[in-house]
Design brief:
CATH architecture of the largest domain: Alpha-Beta Barrel
Radius of gyration: 45 Å
CATH class of the largest domain: Alpha Beta
Distance between the termini: 147 Å
Oligomer: single chain
Helix content: 40-55%
Number of domains: 4
Number of strands: 27
Strand content: 25-35%
């Protein structure tokens, strides 16, 4: 059949020269109809023909297929596109019907033209040589160039630098060869300045005449989005309070440095800094004051660093310094500069605050081969510095790991000990230096561990203070001591029970509440509990200490200054502190009968105490020679192994009974 007959056959079968066609995914039969979306007849296609039709994309295009309708062999020109995931559709014409083909193309392409022209993306279509074939309205607005003026011109020369153009030509040539779609980000000079575009690029093939490939570049301006991302990234990597790199950024920087160190075999150093007693400052002056102090501290630390050292805030009152190609000597020198700077007061308004820090030092690769282990080693060394008395620095050593393991064990098991009743109070008697009568006892906590047996306070009290467990632990001691005092009172034993309160407890508002609760729960009225404080309580915050001492005394407790003569308290300071007694420290008492200097100091202390009407208690008395000399000083009470070791309540009662029998016999 000739092309003219094809034209007549379509009209004969459908009553139109341009019937509608549709092909779905469920069948290789194409439907034809004079009315859109209706099925008049279906024509089977070969799998190759059906695949050819299904190759049409969402952009209107055309193709030609040979079909047989009833007894007529026809050459159909199909104009159409992919409507959705399951359907392709358009209009059909006889291949030789030029007018109909042209009309179908115009009708189909007019929709595509309006989409391209009015799209909210910059759309540029270029041929294989990079010559512009289409340039939509939004592209004109961004460039202030008209489509008709640049059709056929090189996109590389118009919108790219020579370097960018060369790279883009190479990339596009490769993409043209394999025909794959791709995305690219480009900085484009526009009338709005340099803008960043994300181009989604796809290759299409012309449907008639000389077959050609074209590249459709659809670009979205992502400048604001990307800027909002770099801003979010900056915020995500910056500590809001100090402006320093935060914990996340530190880990990223450390990982980058470690990678360089591994590649170039360079060392890497880490300083881990933790402020000493920052919680006390924060609690006393408030969080806004604490935040300002952290900013001042970060500035002070930064002033001690060289250009190749990076400072970051790891969190809370912890800071980290990183240095590539470092040495132990250079890191220790940096640490000493920081410690020196921290000795100066930090002023906020009329308030001056002294603070300090403890610093741990670790090196790659000796102390850790990844970020986590390196920071952990520096952290462990920092805690070792705190154990050494704070205000110092320590380099990581392998044996420090055992101390950390001990801390982990303590953290778990000390809490369990409180909950499961593994703690017990032992009592050491205090006797009259003149008559030997027992006036009271000092309560000393012991931990009876199922795993390790009896654990001395020196092994767990420091950890309890660092971890915050000292408050519940101290509350338990107060409660148990008050309960035992009532039991002894009911048995006719008039014993005052002294309990130790640390500096950390004294500044904790909960300690006074715990004391009052203990008295109330035991109905211990009048109060027969006494408080023993160390000199450090006065050194850290004398005003708060004096306030707490007065409150304890108002509740009926005596307050004793423990370990006097070993700290920084002066004799003149005793006049300012509302005390009831001072205790000469055991180290001071030991062999005092053989030490003329200690004897002279002891006489002065006793003389001042007597003038201030303070009792003097000598602790740590271990032999009769020490006892005899102390009696010449006119001390009031003595305490030590010469008389009795600390013992459980039941054993103390037996000891008292035996002592009473001996006195009667004598």
């Amino acid at each position: 059949m000739s092309e003219d007959q094809d034209y007549s056959a379509l009209y004969l079968h459908f009553g139109t020269n341009s019937p509608y066609w549709r092909l779905g995914t469920d069948s290789d039969a194409i439907s034809l109809s004079a009315i859109r979306d209706e099925i008049q007849i279906t024509v089977g296609l070969t799998p190759e023909q059906a695949e050819h039709v299904r190759s049409l994309t969402g952009i209107t295009s055309s193709l030609t297929i040979d079909v047989r309708i009833f007894d007529d062999d026809l050459k159909l020109h199909l104009v159409g596109r992919k409507n959705n995931a399951n359907e392709w559709a358009g209009t059909a014409s006889a291949y030789g019907d030029t007018d109909s083909v042209a009309r179908d193309l115009v009708e189909g392409l007019s929709f595509a033209e309006s989409v391209v022209s009015e799209a909210n993306s910059v759309i540029v279509i270029v041929d294989q040589a990079g010559r512009i074939q289409r340039f939509n309205r939004l592209a004109e607005e961004y460039t202030n160039k008209r489509e008709q003026d640049i059709i056929g011109k090189s996109a590389f020369e118009l919108f790219m630098s020579p370097e960018e153009a060369a790279a883009s030509r190479r990339n596009i040539s490769g993409f043209y060869r394999n025909g794959s779609s791709y995305e690219a980000e480009r900085l484009i000079n526009t009338v709005k300045g340099k803008r960043l575009f994300l181009f989604r690029n796809k290759f299409v093939r012309s449907g008639s005449g000389k077959k050609q490939n074209f590249l459709i570049c659809s670009g979205t301006d992502i400048t604001e989005e990307r800027q909002a991302r770099e801003r979010l990234r900056i915020l995500a990597n910056t500590d809001v309070l100090t402006g320093l790199p935060n914990r996340y950024a530190i880990n990223e920087l450390l990982n980058t440095s470690l990678k360089r160190g591994q590649e170039k075999r360079l060392s890497l150093g880490v300083l881990f800094l933790d402020l000493d007693d920052f919680k006390r400052v924060n609690d006393h002056y408030g969080h806004p004051f604490g935040d300002k102090l952290l900013r001042l501290v970060s500035t002070a630390i930064a002033s001690c660093l060289s250009d190749d050292q990076i400072l970051g805030r790891f969190g809370g009152d912890e800071f980290i310094v990183l240095q590539e190609n470092a040495s132990i000597e250079s890191l220790e020198a940096t640490a000493q500069r920081i410690l020196g700077a921290m000795r100066l007061p930090f002023r906020q308004g009329l308030i001056e605050v002294y603070t300090s820090c403890s610093i741990g030092i670790a090196m790659y690769p000796d102390h850790g081969e990844d970020a986590e282990s390196l920071i952990r080693s520096a952290d462990i060394a920092m805690y070792a510095a705190k154990e050494m008395g704070r205000r110092t620095c320590k380099v990581f050593a392998a044996d420090m790991d055992q101390r950390v393991a001990d801390s982990v064990w303590l953290d778990t098991n000390l809490r369990k000990a409180l909950a499961e009743g593994q703690l017990q109070l032992y009592y050491q008697p205090k006797l009259s230096a003149k008559t030997g009568a027992v006036f009271g006892v000092e309560a000393l906590v012991r931990w009876i561990s199922p795993e390790h047996g009896t654990i001395a306070p020196s092994a767990f009290i420091p950890y309890a203070e660092e971890s915050g467990l000292i408050s519940p632990l101290g509350g338990w001691v107060m409660e148990e001591a008050a309960r035992q005092a009532v039991i002894w009172r009911d048995k006719g034993l008039s014993l005052r029970v002294a309990i130790n309160v640390s500096a950390r407890q004294l500044v904790d508002n909960a300690s006074m509440g715990n004391f009052m609760d203990a008295l109330g729960a035991a109905s211990l009225h009048p109060c027969s509990l006494d408080i023993e404080l160390t000199e450090s309580c006065l050194i850290e915050d004398e005003v708060t200490a004096i306030k707490a001492i007065r409150q304890f005394r108002q509740l009926g407790a005596e307050v004793h200054m423990d370990d006097f003569g070993t700290g920084y308290s002066s004799l003149s300071q005793l006049a300012r502190i509302p005390l009831d007694a001072i205790k000469l420290d055991a180290h001071f008492v030991r062999d005092i009968n053989k030490k003329p200097v200690s004897q002279a100091i002891a006489r002065a202390i006793v003389a001042v105490a007597k003038a201030l009407r303070l009792k003097v208690i000598a602790e740590g008395v271990e032999n009769h020679s020490e006892e005899s000399f102390l009696q010449t000083l006119d001390v009031d009470q003595v305490q030590g192994y010469l008389y009795a070791r600390p013992m459980p309540a039941a054993e103390l009662e037996l000891w008292l009974q035996q002592r009473q029998r001996l006195q009667i016999t004598a």
